[in-house]
Fold this sequence. Notes:
Layout: H1 2-16, H2 29-35, E1 37-45, E2 55-56, E3 60-61, E4 69-73, E5 78-83, E6 91-99, E7 104-109, E8 123-128, E9 134-143, E10 146-156
Antiparallel strand pairs: 1-4, 1-10, 2-3, 4-5, 5-6, 6-7, 7-8, 8-9, 9-10
Amino acid sequence: MKKIFIVAALALTLFSCKTSSVTATKLDRGTQVGMKGNWVISSVTYPGSDYIKVNSFQLADSKCFEGSTWKFVSNNNKGNMALTKYDCPVFSSPITWFVNTNGEVVLKILDAGEKAKKVRDGYVLRVANMTESSFQLLDRIDVGGKMTDVVYQFQRVN
């Protein structure tokens, strides 16, 4: 009888310690609707940006994202982005995205014709300072053992 009780207590403990995932949380529809529309990244800043290069989204140098265009469609969580800066790689891609109730954007950059469920890698960025005409996405990176925010400043395009 003691063994059954111990096994049951152990099983209960293991099943009650479920980890939560950023993709398993509820959606923040209000923030998603606020992000709906066409945007351009006006600046990318972080401490030491004059000396340290950051490869953003495993695509290009972070400074190549300045001037990039982004479209967020909130009713189906799709959109697209395009790098357009001179002397940088030319890149354009569909995206899928959503905002969870923790204020985090979960973003996937897709290849043409690729379904989001087939893409295993994505990015989690924090939303900050949202207004009708601008918002920021913050990406935490490790620079020399110190966690640093890369700030992508978005401006609405009419």
